[in-house]
């Protein structure tokens, strides 16, 4: 394998960073021991810029290319999302009958049909107001991730300093 560029990121199928590489987990590194890498990364991934800088943190993230509206080092999105009522389209649940049942077969006002065998599943007379009960949802988030395969991202701590074209 050829020598990597300093700061190059690769995907690996093993659970450790090889010698000269580090996991892309956002760890802070001392600038005085990694001056060349700091010259490339700066503080775009974190650190105070005086004594430390951070490596990219790709845990739970999908990398995207820089483009209009996406600045290098910017993060966004979320692994799980809690829907609010403002995000759910307005809707209603109409009931099957607006009137009280007055017989065994209330024409055009059937809430439930008689099964092939057995008794009616509605009472012939009742005085029940039909209305929605309680709220929907349970204040729990739902997964918000595309299908994925978990691998590790590593960044080169040693290598060729990349030159600009």
From TrEMBL:
It comes from Sulfurirhabdus autotrophica. This is Microcystin-dependent protein. InterPro entries: Phage_tail_collar_dom, Phage_tail_collar_dom_sf. The lineage of its organism: Bacteria, Pseudomonadati, Pseudomonadota, Betaproteobacteria, Nitrosomonadales. Residues 7-63 form the Phage tail collar domain.
């Amino acid at each position: 394998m050829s020598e990597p560029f300093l700061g190059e990121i690769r995907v690996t199928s093993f659970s450790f960073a090889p010698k000269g590489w580090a996991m892309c987990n956002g760890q802070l590194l001392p600038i005085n021991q990694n001056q060349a890498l700091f010259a490339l990364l700066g503080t775009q991934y974190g650190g105070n810029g005086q004594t430390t800088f951070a490596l990219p943190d790709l845990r739970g993230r999908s990398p995207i290319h820089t483009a209009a509206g996406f600045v290098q080092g910017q993060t966004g999105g979320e692994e799980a999302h809690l829907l609010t009522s403002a995000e759910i389209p307005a809707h209603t649940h109409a009931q099957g009958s607006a009137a009280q049942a007055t017989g065994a077969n209330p024409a055009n006002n059937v809430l439930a049909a008689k099964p092939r065998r057995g008794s009616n599943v509605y009472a012939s007379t009742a005085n029940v107001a039909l209305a929605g009960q309680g709220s929907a949802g349970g204040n729990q988030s739902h997964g918000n991730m595309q299908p994925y395969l978990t691998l590790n991202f590593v960044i080169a701590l040693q290598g060729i300093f990349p030159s600009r074209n």
